[in-house]
Amino acid sequence: MGGPDLPQRIDLYVPISEMAEKMRAKAHPLEELNHYNAPAVVSSTLAKWPQADAWLPLMTKGQSMSVLLSKKEDKALAVVDLRPWN
Fold first, then answer.
1. I need a surface site. Which of 41, 58, 59, 78 has the fewest CB within 10 A?
2. What is the pLDDT of residues 1-10, one digit of tens each?
3. How much is the pLDDT for 1?
4. Which residues does 27 contact at the CB level (< 8 Å), separation at least 6?
5. Domain for residue 50, yes or no?
6. Three-class SS of residue 65?
């Protein structure tokens, strides 16, 4: 209704360290990305992020993507152009 979109509301941001346990609990194994993407594309994308050990879906207004995670480091590594679902 004319207000800022949620991503622009920095007052709603929390440190990732406060959400690490929930992030790890909801994270998906990397192998699942092969269900929704060509395995060769998944392999070449993951080769750029060898420390990635899990992923979470990212909903956007345009195209849904995946966020690569390092659960060991409690860190989001990259947003990549891999589909999180069909």
1. 59
2. 677 777 778 8
3. 63
4. 54, 55, 56, 69, 71
5. yes
6. strand
Domain holding 37, by residue range, is 14-80
Question: Do 33 and 16 form a contact (C-beta atoms < 8 A)?
Answer: no
Q: Count the Cβ atoms, other than its own, within 10 Å of residue 77.
A: 18
Cβ-based neighbours of 30, under 8 Å, separated by 6 or more: 42, 46, 52, 53, 54, 55
Return the residue matching tokens 């998944």: 42
In a domain, 1, yes or no: no
How confident is the model over 28-74, as pLDDT tens digits?
999 999 999 999 999 999 999 999 999 999 998 889 999 999 999 99
